Amino acid sequence: MGKEDLLVAVEGAIMNLTLNRPDSLNAFSPDMILGLQEAIKEAESNPDIRVIVLSGAGRSFSAGGDVKTMGQSSATQVYDHIGRLNQLILAMKETEVPIIAAVHGFAAGAGFNLALACDLIIAAEDSKFALSFSQVGLISDGGGSYFVPRLIGPHLAKQFFFSAEPVSAKRLYELGVINHLAPLESLQQEVLSLASRLAQGPTKAYGMIKKLVNHSFTSSLEEILEQERITQTMMVTTSDHQEGIAAFKEKRKPVFKGK
Description:
This protein is of the alpha/beta class.
């Protein structure tokens, strides 16, 4: 992997992934996509990593596809590229490790969708988002056609896709797309605070919650009820559950280990 395209740093239980093509507003490259997928696999296999934070270097989170190289690839190359992007999005949704997107500047096109594939989004108050695909005669990729209608409804989703106009972080926060807004100067501090809280929590339970919520969009009530039944039967045997019960009885703060 071209290490310059993605920075990976592990601090305690938190893995920080930084998109690192600032000169192109962190537009995607094959190395970046592959690196993200490899890092997620690494986090999954390392029980000491309990939270992932995804951010962008320089002035913005990500501009998504690299417009400078558009029109230079064959249909087969585009098909293969989107296939790799799809594998990344699926890996992000399927991993049990919570992923926080820390967004500043601009998140456009597939860069916006990459943030939506995370579990939580914290954005700088002055950041902007755009589903900019139609500006270059394209449709959404990176899962936008799935994520956006589920978050804001089909009519507003089509409006955002059709217009391709930038949307403020404040409006997306009001729509429930963004979890928290922060001043740019304190964004990283807010993200670290949230990541630290999650890392100290019952991350085994978080992973199961993530799977159940994601499955709820494609499952019937009966199927979710049965998944809850099976999962809860497993969860009562975990060390974190036993620790939570003990801490409650002893009137102290639980010390979860994600096991």
